[in-house]
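Here's a chain:
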Amino acid sequence: MPPSAANPLSDRSLGWLRYLNRKAHTPDDWSRAGKPHPHWDDRSDPPMASWHRFDLVDSSYAMGLMAQRTPAWTERYVAILDQLIERHTGWWSAADWLTQFGPDPDRANYPDPYRALIPAELWGDYDVPGWTANGTEPWGTQMDPVAADGMLFYKGFFLVLLGIRSMVANAASEVGHGAGQTDRWNQPFEMIRDGHENTFEWTHTGIAEHLCQQWLAAPIGCH
């Protein structure tokens, strides 16, 4: 048997898989009353990507690639992806949208590196990209980050995460592994779960259809 077939994942890739499996299955609490485990990165690449959910979504890319190389491990890949998705339904996945209302009160105190992101003539009076500004007129406050007129990157990246999970689970089902796992996230699930008024029900297909309708209504972009 050629070495590539006997060992389709490198030692480095196996180490990453072992780490991500442990990381995804370490209990934590992404509800408003809880706090994500410190191993979920919320520091890298400010001001736009320094939120825990980016670590979730970016971690999923390796699962899609590894599943192509080692389909016999698909159930483990799906288990990891389910943990990532479950966290992405919690309050902390949308903490920026749920706490950043109106203009950024700190816009006059941005660090100099942010100058590259803001028109020079508006420096000090313009929100940095990544400030979500929930409540801005004429749209008003919208607490559901999926249904909202804005927050495109939230639901777009969530669809990437859901899509990778669907791809991996469907491929496993076709070869007789993981039957019954393919439609888990096409069953209604709750998001945010911050009291009765701020608990929202969605499905994978429902999010995709909603985003499609938003693009059709505003071809220039649903932001």
